[in-house]
């Protein structure tokens, strides 16, 4: 198999193609589960590289298999394909050609790097002891494409033994583009939702004693929910309960008969999200009943917490240090409460999800994810390819 330096040199030679792929994908963004043109572009290239390609996995997911000539295990490389419903304002010559859609989260770069890894590794299939499976999934931004792909057999035939994925951009503050950040455990939070309807009894605003004021009940309930975080959880246990939307009332002098609100719940542990579900329901039920109202409550379990396998992550970190230099591989200082459906894959097989910094203030790339001016330093594309390939080879050779 090629050495680390040989991998890096081969990846450097792919840089022009990587940029071209990324820019093409950037110009034609698709959102959610409906990504047919993106999937077709990815699948066509993978076939050109000589991989066995299956399309329509869990919808518009793409699974490609590179079979090594020698027997061994199977490692997966995952990339997300969807964009966001944002109107691009970067002014780049390859800006989105689709009004109201933009790759504002780096998924175009993720795809380019995974495609580069597929092309590079396909040249060494004769030396591979095992297989590399490439998973291109839609709907990472919602409603989620990983689980439908898993349900449709993406991790089977052959069975995936380990998985690696990355995110690029500026999630964690970095000193320069090309730095690698790893986490040996919990890295991102669950992505859950609550929907609440409180029913009271409408009436005249000047005669509150004849009504049951749903707005007063909702106000008390929303304020009290925050006591779960401040008084029922350990101060060092990260969790969030945020009410992001509330609707109720029709006029200034009418007591509202009902109020609806919804919000998000974030936690880094499965047992904690289950606790939050029970306590939110319990508090709401107690307050609403105590104030003579009726409650409708729904808790939707979204993406689970993303937890990396510590042993696999340590192995990846050692390989990454050989690729980008020991000084450029760092431990993530603290998890983010953002969610990521890579978590579904990591719930099924061991693996790691790492961060590859790509913001460069010298080039004006300072905007956060989901911003209409988000952009990346394309010089890191070859590094992503090198990291994917080196990790795959190291695992299969073990």
Count of DSSP strands: 16
What characterizes the major β-sheet? 8 strands, mixed
What would CATH call the homologous superfamily of the largest domain? Zn peptidases
Helix content: 25-40%
State the order of secondary-structure elements, H for helix, E for strand.
HHHEEEHEHEEEEEHEEEHEEHEHEH
Explain the overall architecture:
The protein has 398 residues and is α/β, with parallel strands linked by helices. It has two domains: 278 residues, 3-Layer(aba) Sandwich (Aminopeptidase); 113 residues, Alpha-Beta Plaits (2-Layer Sandwich). The protein contains ten helices and 16 strands. The strands form four sheets. The protein has an eight-stranded mixed β-sheet, sandwiched between helices. The protein has a four-stranded antiparallel β-sheet with strand order 10-12-8-13, with helices on one face. A hairpin with a 3-residue loop joins strand 1 and strand 2. The chain is elongated and about 80 Å long. The relative contact order is 0.19.
